[in-house]
Amino acid sequence: MRLVSSILRFSLFLFVLVVPGRLRAQQRFTLSGYIRSGADRSVLPGASVAVPALGTGATADAEGFYSLTLPEGRYQLSISFIGYQTQTRELNLTKSQRISFSLPEASNELGEVVIEGTGTLEQKLQTTQMSVEHLNARDAKLLPALFGEVDLLKTLQLKPGVQNGGEGTSGLFVRGGSADQNLFLLDDAVVYNPSHLFGLFSVFNADAIQSVDLYKGGFPAQYGGRLSSVVDVKTRDGNPRKLGVSGGLGLISSRLTLDGPIVKEKGSFSLSGRRTYFDVFTRQINKLNKDTEDYNPIPDYYFYDFNAKANYKLGQKDQVFLTGYYGRDVFGFNSTGGFNFDFTWGNAVGALRWNHVFSPKLFLNTTASVTRYQYQIANRLDQFGFSLSSEILDYALRSDLDYLASDKHTLKLGVSATTHRFNVGRLSASSTDGSLNIGSEIVYRGQEASLYASDNFKASDKLQLDYGLRLTGFRSGSNQYAALEPRGAVRYSLTPKTSLKASYAMMYQYVHLVTNSGASLPTDIWYPSRLNVKPQRSQQVATGISFLLGEGKYLLTDEVYYKWAQNQVDFRDGAQLFANEDLDAEFLFGKGWSYGNELYLEKKSGRTTGWIGYSLAWTQRQFPPQRGGSGVNNGKVFYPTYDRRHNLTVVGLHQLNERINLTASFVFTSGAPTTLPQGRFLLQDIFGDNPMAVPIYPDRNTYRMAPYNRLDLGMVYKLRPKHGESDLTFSVYNAYNRRNPYFVYFEQVRNKETGDVTNYRARQVSLFPVIPSVTYNFKF
């Protein structure tokens, strides 16, 4: 018994001595913090913290926050982001720690240009998310631009699966979706009209933007409300260390940005403004010519926008952000005959966000926002005045909770609520003598809410899943709708450099853009789902394969998608869209399909970077007869105007030396579908005089215009000022002067002797010839 007792006591001693040590050796701790730019302390979404010894790592979220759980031990960390120098840090992890990193920008010296850039490509390979494009303003500013005006949405048009709305426009048509099926977010606040100058430029000033994420499919559960894409725009935080000024003088506009600390290292602000000056020249021309006999005034036009952002740390765990945007387009015409025409439109956006870190594994973002889009047309002729306006006003509140439950599970939960006010038509007419004073207003209200949950599950080193469910609801008056929107994505690594991916997403859209044209115009009206206006719905499946090539310097992806949609919106021929109290009766509803293949080759490191994208795609719509009418195209399937069979883009950026960067982009797309008359018949009046040639139209969009192709060239030449930084950016839009079709019309061909009309001839209208431009940019 003594021997047994001794053995038991010795075993207990070993258990007390050894087992806790082993338990301690198996303990895991969490490393978390922020990754920022060393230059201006702005956050770097998408930056990575890697642990090469374990083959694991973490990616910073939209706030620049990362979190990584590791076993206790000593590690070497690698912190990287494209355009910044990679850092390595030694870490002895014995407890949960919060460590933030600052990355210095990549040097201009050629020896250091080839930076460690494959981290982002590896992340794109390893993430479950597919059909997404990430863009930062720094890269976009190097690309050639129309009139030298850098436009982030135009840069997105250079990605496969994205079509533009026409020559020079910034509108997006993503994977067969219409213009109103894109959700634009500015720091989590909705922007309803993302365009200036009738769609030629976007409202997003590149100086104020930190990053842009475009989701074409496989939508994460936190996004909803649109069918085709999500464009998530994040604005820059100000520099919390020192005051800075930057800006630029361009061919059509000037920009100025001011940022700096509110309280050093605790809070900062950023202010950015931009204005065009077409009107400065047109007014001077009108003044010089107003006394001439054939004086015909030129209309005035200009746009401006203003971005503001401030942030402040309330403590180690709390930070608040305030974002504001205000932009306006102003078009005016004053004729010599007393007729005055004024047309203004624009957005106003405000968002207040509170970020709270409960622990390194649990953090919360809550955002309250207000969004307003409106336009107004005002005419005056002598004593009579007339005005027409429309508006949509939103008040929204959303809260998103991120929880790193374990090494294998990352949970996201969220809730949102929005109150809509739709003023679909305000009409007024009056006279200066008071004999006429009439007005009418049509207003609808709606409430939209959602609740979502998702889980990113790392089943193994090779298999990762991302699945979620979104519950949405909408109410307008006595009409109510609710829907479940399942989302799912999976990634399987065949090898360390090859991944297979697949995704599925269902989306509902409860607000609709009332338009009778193929492009989004300032006069389009947003309209709620009602009894006779059902919510739009789409489902999309996609699958793809990704390869890292050339020692990780290249990423090649091939994605195939199929999307089908119900309750697509169109309108009766001759529909009355303005100030119509029974607008529901003008809607037609149908279905649509789009499918295609997208190839994409990308290089992000070295002196030469860029991408090549190609898509082969089909888009179709069908609106059967309904309500006693013939539907659209007599109920037959047709191709909408944004259907493009082939789309090729090539983008190249090359650093020639420490002062000169060369850039180029080439675009080729199939011609846009259009409807042209196939013949005419003569219609005589009762007296047999003045016959009228009436065009005979075939099915809708049975013709295609000529293919579109364009080459843009650019050069950035860095100057050497005594203080700060500056450069001259040269660009040539449409370098070989391709006369691309904008629209086609017919003119009469007459007999030279008799003057009789003998035939009709098609004429093509082109918008932009070759346009060189230069912009001076500065920063100090």
Automatic annotation (TrEMBL):
GO terms of biological process kind: siderophore transmembrane transport
Alphabetical list of PROSITE patterns matching this protein: TONB_DEPENDENT_REC_3
Domain TonB-dependent receptor-like beta-barrel: start-end pairs: 291-734
Record's GO cellular component terms: cell outer membrane
Keyword Phosphoprotein: no
Record bears the keyword Transmembrane: yes
InterPro entries: Beta-barrel_TonB (IPR000531), Beta-barrel_TonB_sf (IPR036942), CarboxyPept-like_regulatory (IPR008969), Plug_dom (IPR012910), Plug_dom_sf (IPR037066), TonB-dep_rcpt-like (IPR039426)
PANTHER family linked: HEMOGLOBIN AND HEMOGLOBIN-HAPTOGLOBIN-BINDING PROTEIN 1-RELATED, TONB-DEPENDENT OUTER MEMBRANE RECEPTOR
Protein name per UniProt: TonB-dependent receptor-like protein
